[in-house]
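HOLO CASE FILE
Compound: zinc ion
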Amino acid sequence: MSTRYLISNARYLVTVNENNEILENTSLLIEDGKISAINPLKLDLSGLEVIDGSQLLVMPGLVNSHTHLAMTLLRGWAEGVDLQGFLEKVWVAEAAIMDPATCALGAELGAAEALLSGTTTTLDMYFHPESTHAAAAKVGLRHVTGPIFFDKPSIDGLTWDERVTAAHRWPQFLEEVGGPFIPTFLMPHSVYTDSLEHLHEVSSIASELSARIHLHVSETEAENALALELYGRTPTELCLDTGILNSPTTFGHAVHLSQSDIDIAVTKGASVSHCPGSNLKLSSGIADITNYMKQGIVVGLGTDSCSSSNDLNMWAVMRLSANLVSLKHGAQNVDLAHLLRCATVEGAKALGLEDRIGSIEVGKEADLITIDLRALHLTPVHNVLALLFYAVDKSDVKDVWVNGRRVVKNRELINVKSDELRARVNERVHTLH
Ligand SMILES: [Zn+2]
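Model generated. C-alpha cells follow.
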C-alpha cells in the first residue's frame, strides 16, 4: 500500500491554521504519516498515489471530544426519557451484554461509523478500554480512551483496587497496541459515581502518570443540585477540591456552569466538550459556549453516545452548535470560522493533541478528509464555511486518512468489511430482545 499521497489541485483546502485560511486549487503532499508539503515544488513520483482534487474540498478530520463508542450497540434503545430515565434503561442493557468482546464489537462499529462520517479522533469513555481500544485502533481511528473509574463494581465487575491497577498498567498497554499517538487519559465517570476520596486518588495517579482526565461535569441541573445537597459544592468545585483539575481536564457536557465554575475552569485550564445533540434530546439544557469561549475556555464538540444522540454525526453537532448560538446571541454573532476550530483544532487542544492534528499545516500528522463537491446539494459554493455547517452531511465524506494512513477510500472502509461487521452486530444484540 502506498504511504505517499498527493491530493492534486484541491478545489478548496480548508486549513484551519492560525489565520483560518481557505486555499483554492492547491496541492497537498502526505508522506511518512505527515503533511509534508503544501503546493510541493519538486515531486519524487516513486510510490506516490495521485488523487485528483479538482472536485474535492480537503480539511482536517473532525475531533469528537466526548463519546461512548461501544454504545453504538444500543442505538435507539432508550427513547422518550431524560438523563435519569436514560441511565436506568441503558444500565440494564449494558449489564446484559457488555462483556469485553461485545465492547470491542461496539467500538469497532463506532470507529467504522466515525471514520465514514469524517471523524478521525474520538475521546471515548467506556468499560473494558483495553478491548475497545484494540478494536478501534484496528479500524484505523485515532481512538483516545483510558481506564474508567466507578466506586462500585460496575458491568465490568472491577473492584476499585483493580481499576487502580489497570490505570498504572495503561501507558504500557498503549505502547503494546501501537497505532496513531494518543495521550494518556484517566476517566472517572463523574462526581456522582465516584466518591471524593476516590476522585482524590485518581488525581494522584494522574499526576504520577502525567495523564489527562476526562469526566462528566454539570450535564444537568439535577446533577448540580445533588452535588450541592451532598457536599455544598458544585461538580466543578469538587473537581478543584479533589485535585482533579491539577491535571489537564476535559469536562463532558458542562451545560450548567456557574460564573464561579467558569472562573475555575479558566484558571485551571479545563476544557469543555459541547454535546448539543445529546443535551437537547435528553432535555438537559443548552451550554452557552459563546460565553465560555469569550472567557477563555477551550471548547470542543462531541456527539455523546449513540444511545443519547443515536449517531456519531459531527456535522449534525456542528450545525446544531451554530444554530444554538444564533438562537441565543443572534445570527450576526455566529462565528463559523471559530466553530470549525471547535470541531477540529480546538477539540484537539481539549485532548492535548493540538501540536499534532486538527489543522492542515506542514509537519502535522495527516488526519485529513475529503468532501465530494459534485453533489447537487453542495452546488453552488458561495461560502465555504456555510457549506460545511449547513449543507454538508456525513455521507459527503469521500476519503479519510489518519496518521497518513488511508482508512476510507471512496466511501468504503479499508480495514473492515461493512457487511460482515453488520452481521456480527445484529447477531450479538439479538439477545436483548
Ligand atoms: Zn457521556
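CASE NOTES: The domain at 62-350 is CATH 3.20.20.140 (TIM Barrel). The mean pLDDT is 96.
CLOSED: yes
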